[in-house]
Amino acid sequence: MSVDKARVARNFGRYVRFYEDHAIVQKRMAHQLLQRVHRAGGSHAGRIIEIGCGTGYFTQLLAETCRRSKITAIDICSEAVAVARLRLRHNPKLNFRVADGEALDERNCDLLVSNATFQWFNNLPGAFARYYACLRDGGALLFATLGQGTFKELYVSMNKTWGNRAHAIGANYKRHFPSPEAIESYLSAAGFTRVRVEQEKATEMYNSVKDFLYAIKHIGAGNPKPMVLSPRSLAKLISFYSEHFSVRGRIQATYAVIYGEAVKTVQGNTVRNYEW
């Protein structure tokens, strides 16, 4: 399913002030990604571009770790960029720009980073090819994104409730989250070496299905082309989800998080450990 990114940007913009109250998993991903940036020596990178900065939560962590780096943070949602710019207005080494991270056109970057963004892309192989061109020799791409298995309980409930038909909300809502194997192959095909891709699964608990749906709506992860549900249809979904995916009175939701790391190495050169 092709994602309408203009609708995605509007969804994020509509709920941007609520994002960090509900982005529990995304914040955890940010801290894990920061550790990987630190281990890779990213604190010494001269020029960093963050793809999909959102409200600037990871941007702030990155700036605090990479104090000597010049960081450009981009996002497709202008409202999110405005929040991030205001949040970090006192840091002269930060530059914010409204742009589509899937169409990045830069050169001689030392480090590209991205947290919880690539799941929205329509052409991930094409984006990785662009990123390879953006990096200088020895530069690296480090990211965290959501992968296959994310929200599996919700998709099962939707399709069991209405059937797996083209017009069913389950079919319209479902994201084609990438698998770790696919991401690894895309990176290698783009020319990257020292490719490393790992997936971790986490289960978040919510007091009710309504609380879960409210949370994903307010992190901008709702259906970019929403369908209007009747009270009866919504009640059927909630009933199935609650019956099959409850643990001790609370409902569970799976998040599959993929962490990726890759280096641009021009043929014949040897890069020791990301020599920024």
* Largest sheet, strands/sense/barrel: 8 strands, mixed
Report the C-alpha radius of gyration, rounded.
19 Å
Distance between the termini: 38 Å
Beta-strand fraction estimate: 15-25%
The tally of beta strands, per DSSP, is: 8
CATH superfamily of the domain at 5-151 and 176-203 and 256-263: Vaccinia Virus protein VP39
Q: Oligomer, anyone?
A: single chain
N-to-C SSE string, H for helix and E for strand: HHHEHEHEEHEHHHEHHEE
CATH-level-2 architecture of the domain at 5-151 and 176-203 and 256-263:
3-Layer(aba) Sandwich
Structure summary:
With 276 residues, the protein is of the alpha/beta class. The chain has a domain at 5-151 and 176-203 and 256-263: 3-Layer(aba) Sandwich (Rossmann fold). It is 40% helix and 24% strand.
Question: Could you walk me through the main structural features you see in this protein, from its secondary elements to its overall organization?
Answer:
By secondary structure, the chain is α/β, with parallel strands linked by helices. The protein has a domain at 5-151 and 176-203 and 256-263: Rossmann fold (3-Layer(aba) Sandwich), CATH 3.40.50. It contains eleven helices and eight strands. Strands 1, 2, 3, 4, 5, 6, 7 and 8 form an eight-stranded mixed beta sheet that branches. Helix 6 packs across helix 9 and helix 7 (152-162) packs across helix 11 (231-244). The protein is globular and about 60 Å long.
What's the arrangement of secondary structure elements?
Layout: H1 5-14, H2 19-22, H3 24-39, E1 47-51, H4 57-65, E2 70-75, H5 78-87, E3 94-98, E4 109-115, H6 124-134, E5 135-146, H7 152-162, H8 169-173, H9 180-190, E6 193-206, H10 209-217, H11 231-244, E7 246-247, E8 250-263
Parallel strand pairs: 1-2, 1-4, 2-3, 4-5
Antiparallel strand pairs: 5-8, 6-8, 7-8
